[in-house]
From TrEMBL:
Modified residues (N6-carboxylysine): 137
Keyword annotations from UniProtKB, A to Z: Hydrolase, Metal-binding
GO molecular function: hydrolase activity; zinc ion binding
Phylogenetic placement of the source organism: Bacteria, Pseudomonadati, Pseudomonadota, Alphaproteobacteria, Hyphomicrobiales
Cofactor: a divalent metal cation
Binding site for Zn(2+) 1: 22, 24, 137, 252
Protein name (record): Esterase
Domain of life: Bacteria
Cofactor note: Binds 2 divalent metal cations per subunit.
Length: 304
């Protein structure tokens, strides 16, 4: 049986319902060498973010995927605190973001060392905090992978191949996604265990199709950040092209930002439930398809 690895332990499909596959609880987009990077009082984060979790619980959301990885302020301890305060499972990644958000230790580590680090977090625990990483989150530059980003991806593919973990990457250009898939397959892993994060940013829809047809997940994670008509039309276009079994939907919203006074003002995780799904239903998308997009696909993408 497959499980979602969460802050509250492994969760089976019958234990879960709707899952948000791309959100943030805590993010610091300053580079790791900046003063105060990723620093915050845990109680302040819980105070700001717990109400946002409670709102989606009332809408039937049963888990979310935290997409803050190494280099952009991953704080698994804070994710756990928010999770415990709300009795709500959060899926936290291992891995690291792209340049220039790469800590010095990652920059100087060998592929073997990076593989061992990710493997430990996937199979044992993150930073002695007590729960396993649920997946691997990476990124690549808009113009193509740098040598350092390629090193991290190769190490990720090797760690993932030993655990069946999914690899998700913030990658804007479809052609760069295809290059990433080439690297993953060259390391002996599979395209169907890759998520093309921010697929909507590739405006050539042919690349959306090419990535999905290769077996990877495509993720439209701009719900509530782009116009509802635009998002609905893109989703329906993907469904009509036969991509419904490889499509993920989310907001890419939240979050506590330690660079802002009191963490800033969070943007709710509710728009998918309260606006987009009713709009898709109004446009003729049946309930079975909506269930697949919001319940089945996220579980299948992240479970192992």
């Amino acid at each position: 049986m497959k499980y979602l690895r969460t802050t509250l332990g492994p969760k089976s499909k019958p234990e879960l319902g709707m899952i948000l596959p791309h959100e943030h609880v805590f993010v610091d987009l300053r580079t790791p060498d900046q003063p105060g990077y990723a620093e915050a009082e845990t109680e302040d984060v819980v105070r700001l973010m717990a109400p946002e979790i409670e709102r989606i619980k009332k809408l039937g959301v049963t888990a979310l995927v935290e997409c803050s990885t190494g280099g952009v302020g991953r704080r698994a301890d804070i994710d756990l605190a928010v999770s415990l305060a709300t009795d709500f499972p959060i899926v936290v990644p291992t891995g690291n973001y792209r340049e220039p958000w790469i800590p010095e230790w990652v920059r100087h580590a060998s592929e073997r060392e990076l593989e061992a680090w990710m493997l430990r977090e996937l199979t044992e625990q993150i930073d002695e905090i007590g729960f396993q990483a649920g997946w691997i989150k990476l990124s690549a530059g808009d113009d193509g992978m740098t040598a350092l980003e390629t090193k991290i991806l190769r190490a990720a593919a090797r760690a993932a191949a030993q655990t069946d973990a999914v690899i998700g990457s913030h990658t804007i250009r479809g052609r760069v996604v295809m290059d990433q898939l080439d690297v993953i397959e060259a390391e002996g892993y599979r395209a169907d265990r890759f998520i093309s994060i921010h697929t909507q940013e590739e405006k050539d829809f042919a690349y959306n199709l090419a990535v999905a047809q290769r077996g990877a997940w495509i993720e439209y994670d701009h719900v509530g950040r782009a116009g509802d008509d635009e998002v609905a039309e893109l989703v329906i276009r993907a469904l009509e092209a036969g991509c419904g079994d490889r499509l993920l939907l989310s907001h890419d919203r939240g979050w506590y930002d330690p660079a802002l006074p009191m963490g800033g003002t969070p943007k709710p995780y509710t728009h998918l439930s309260t606006v987009l799904l009713p709009e898709l239903r109004r446009r003729g998308v049946d309930d079975g398809t909506l269930m697949r997009l919001t319940h089945d696909n996220p579980f299948e993408a992240f479970a192992r």
